[in-house]
Design a protein that fits this description.
four-stranded mixed beta sheet; 45% helix; 9 strands; five-stranded mixed beta sheet; 8 helices; 275 residues; alpha/beta
Amino acid sequence: MTALSPEVGPARNAATSLRSRAAGASVITRCLAEQSQVPDRGRLARVFGRSPLSEESRSWYLGALGELAVAGRLKQLGSGWTVLHSVPVGRGESDIDHIVIGPSGVYTINTKHHDDARVWVGARKLLVNGQPTDHLRNSRHEAERATRLLSAATGMDVVVRPVIAVVGAKSITVKELPSDVMVLADTQLVRWLKRRRRTPALATAPVVAAAEHPSTWHENGAEALAHANLDQFATLQQEVRTARDVRAIWVGAGAVAIGAVAVTQLTPALALMFG
């Protein structure tokens, strides 16, 4: 294997280090790109609380929320752990949601936001609302690629374990866990990582040094680090929340109106019955 090059050392320019990369940077960038093609809502649409999201941008938006939720959880790991987010990998726009390096090993965390869904896990498949997914296959591929790249960059045999963190599911039913992929709710992730058995032989320093360097993962190195407009995404989040609140007000008003009509219709009948 090729040993770790001198440029992949502990000292790192913050602008080219993955340590400073924002969680969800890739999906936020894609979300905003899709959203930029969406016509502005008219006044009437705003009055009735129509979502500002298109079908295309909505999937990226939910993906970003999922990655941000998991990133928030991972902050609880504390010292002794290194967490990298939205790591560009390969040649194109693919990325790894989160890479975690700690006393028990190296992990790729694949975030899946399945809001209010029923997730079923078996040894060889993962279903969402009864529909098959590629989550297990993709997570295996992701970890295998991370294993190859980190091993090549460090000159060590680095083994990376894939983890799928499910966000927002109504239920997760595990019939049998896959032997090589961990599947759990995002609320269980930190506890599971901390309880994993320590790996005494793991030298984390060179792994961290390699992992935080963009050229370890992507052919274009630091040039692949598109900077997400977090302020613009925060504005979009506020617009989505406002639209949701407006819809809730209309639903509540409708329920009150229906109740008022029902009372008006029932009052004469009750007067005849009990009058």
